[in-house]
Write a structure and sequence with these properties.
heterodimer; A: mainly beta
């Protein structure tokens, strides 16, 4: 079974540009989460989808960030325009709704560097 | 909101020694405490978790203890091996057993096990 896949693995852009990160969750996982780790700090929650619906987007930093999950499958996280403080590693995670284990399955992350 | 503090930030041990990582949380309503291991180039992976109705849980060489009164929980690794070298994150959540997990993470501990 394929794990959570994220693309790109690393993106380097200039301040003011736009970047779109993609996450493909494990097949059958209705829960999809985005987290971010800024260098050396904690991994912080951004938002949570159940299928195509946003359940909790309380962690989104500001309106420069837009997450979508069309059709309840893959998700994209767009940053527009990017600022220096947006640099970090963006993790996507997924889990099943039906199973009560609580385990999140993380992707390898997308490292974003804003110059 | 919930805040999780994690210590130490780095930990170096000799192979065969024990390693202990400690975390404290602020929200007494938190009821789920997972530990994730992140190896170089990979995403975080769940290694053990504990719920608030349990004081200790063990899985081979790793164990987690929880002190709800003091709001402390710790990860214990015995007989460390070089492959235990990684970054370890503790986390806390108020999620019920529904598969919805808005985790609040600590800042991570880089464990280095020297042969």
């Amino acid at each position: 079974e394929a794990g959570v896949t994220q693309f790109p693995s690393h993106s380097v852009i200039e301040k003011g540009q736009t970047v779109t990160l993609r996450c493909d969750p494990i097949s059958g996982h209705d829960n999809l989460y985005w987290y971010r780790r800024v260098m050396g700090k904690e991994i912080k929650f951004l938002l949570h989808f159940v299928k195509e619906s946003k359940q909790d987007e309380s962690g989104m930093p500001n309106n420069r960030f837009l997450a979508e999950r069309t059709g309840g499958t893959y998700s994209t996280l767009k940053v527009q325009p990017a600022e220096l403080e947006d640099s970090g590693v963006y993790f996507c995670a997924s889990s099943q709704v039906a199973r009560n284990t609580g385990e999140l399955f993380f992707g390898e992350g997308s490292r974003l560097t804003v110059l | 909101g919930e805040n999780v503090e994690q210590h130490p930030s780095t930990l170096s041990v000799q192979e065969g020694d024990s390693a202990v990582i400690k975390c404290t949380y602020s929200d007494s309503a938190s009821n789920y405490f997972p530990w994730y291991k992140q190896e170089l180039g990979k995403g975080p992976q769940l290694i053990i978790d504990i719920r608030s109705n349990v004081g200790e849980k063990k899985d081979q060489r790793i164990a987690v203890t929880l002190n709800k009164t003091a709001k402390h929980f710790s990860l214990h690794i015995t007989e460390t091996q070089p492959e235990d070298s990684a970054v370890y994150f503790c986390a806390a959540s108020k999620g019920r057993d529904t598969g919805f997990q808005k985790l609040v993470f600590g800042t991570g501990t880089r464990l280095l096990v020297s042969p």
